[in-house]
Design a protein that fits this description.
Blueprint lengths: L24 H7 L31 H9 L6 E9 L4 E15 L5 E16 L3 E8 L4 E8 L4 E9 L7 E8 L6
Antiparallel strand pairs: 1-2, 2-3, 3-4, 4-5, 5-6, 6-7
Amino acid sequence: MGSSVSQASAPPPPPPTYASTPPSFVHAAADVAAPPPKPHEEEATEEKVDYLNLPCPVPYEEIQREAFMTLKPDLFEGMRFDFTKMITPYFALTHSVAMGSIDIPAQKSGVIKIPTSNYEFGANFINQKTMLMGRVAHDGRENIRVKHDITDNLSLKINAQLTSEPHYSKGMLYFDYKVSLLL
């Protein structure tokens, strides 16, 4: 449990083998010649950018959310614990526990802090064309997100929030179509 970091690198080269006695370090520097200079053709060339085939930017509807996530850090008073267990390379289960307080403005200049807690269980399925994410909270709320690439240019997205309270459930369905502009 906890986070782990791993790094893989090539093994070190084997030590040099000498047929007879190893060369002395005093004369080794004088005996070794400098490598010849590389010709200009072999130098790294800068790749040209094809501006007509750049990846799609963030949709206009999501610019405000992207700016909000970048400019306002997720700071709160309390604690949060997220645990994700990969079952297969495509399927994972998640648990999330949060404890903190909600600030409610009082009639005077102060605020009233009400302690809150939340537990969510979730399941994720992600492969090359489909992403399914579901979360169930301890109070019965369900959040569902679906993204499916129908073709290379057409994708389907579904977001839904279901609650036990009447008139608070909502859903959104939309299609994204990517076009290439030929000038």
